[in-house]
Amino acid sequence: MRILIVEDEKKVAGFIKKGLEEETYAVDVAYDGEDGLHMGVENQYDLIILDLMLPIIDGLNVLSRLRGKKVETPILLLTAKDSVEDKVTGLNSGADDYLTKPFAFSELLARIRVLLRRGKTETKTVLQIDGLSLDLVSHKVKRHDEEIELTGKEYSLLEYFMRNQGKVLTRTMIAEHVWDYNFDTFTNVIDVYVNHLRKKIDKGYPEKLLHTLRGVGYIMKE
Ligand code: CA
Fold first, then answer.
1. Could you give the CA distance from residue 79 to residue 147 in angstroms, rounded to a whole number?
2. Ligand 1 center to residue 86 CA distance, Å?
3. How far, in Å, is the centroid of ligand 1 from the Cα of 203?
4. How far, in Å, is the centroid of ligand 1 from the Cα of 42?
5. What is the C-alpha to C-alpha distance for residues 194 and 72, in angstroms, rounded to an integer?
6. From the CA of 8, how far away is ligand 1's center (Å)?
7. Residue-wise DSSP of 5-53
8. pTM
9. Predicted confidence (pLDDT) per residue in 174-217, tens digit
10. Ligand 1 mean position to 151 CA, how many Å?
C-alpha cells in the first residue's frame, strides 16, 4: 500500500514517514500544496494524509481540487487546531476522516487501516486465500498454521496481492502500490521480489497461489 503525506512541517512529515515505513507502507512526501496536488493526481496512491495549513495551496483547496479531478483516493486530514468548522468543511469537501495534531501514532495507524478497507464489506483484519493468511495488525503470515518469515517489502507485496485476489497485476501497478517515488521501474526488482515471495509461500504446497502471466504480470488465485 502506497501513501502520500502532504505536510510542510518537515519534522512531522519525517516522523509519520518513518513510522509508516516501519509498518511496510511505501511513502512519498510533498512539502507544499502544489506538489501535493500534482503528486496526488499523477500517482495511484492508496491513501493521502493531508495537512490543512500548507504553503502555496492550502489543504482544503488541494482536497477539493483532487476531488474535482476525480481522484477518489481516501484522504485523511490533519488539523493543527481542534476547530469544528475546519473539520466540517473538510468532510463536506470530500475528506474521509481527520485527526487533530498532536496525535498518537497508534491512532493514526488504526484510522489508516479503516480507510484502506473503505468500500469493502469485510471488517476483518486477517486476509486469507487457501490456507494462507496475513494478519494486518500483527503482520504474521501463515500457511496451514506454519508461520512464514517475510521481509518488510515481501510482506507489503503479499498484502497487495492478497487485497487484489483474482486480478491481473502488471509490474507498473505493483510498482505504484508497493514502492515509493524513488523506485526505478526499469529494473527487474519486482520479478526478483515476486520470486522470493513465491518460494516462501508456495514452495512445498501442491496448490500454487502466485502465478506469472507471461508478458503481462502476475495474479494471485487458487
Ligand atoms: Ca502545516
1. 40
2. 14
3. 48
4. 22
5. 28
6. 5
7. EE-S-HHHHHHHHHHHHHTT-EEEEESSHHHHHHHHHHS--SEEEEESS
8. 0.78
9. 988 898 877 776 678 899 999 999 999 999 899 999 999 988 99
10. 33
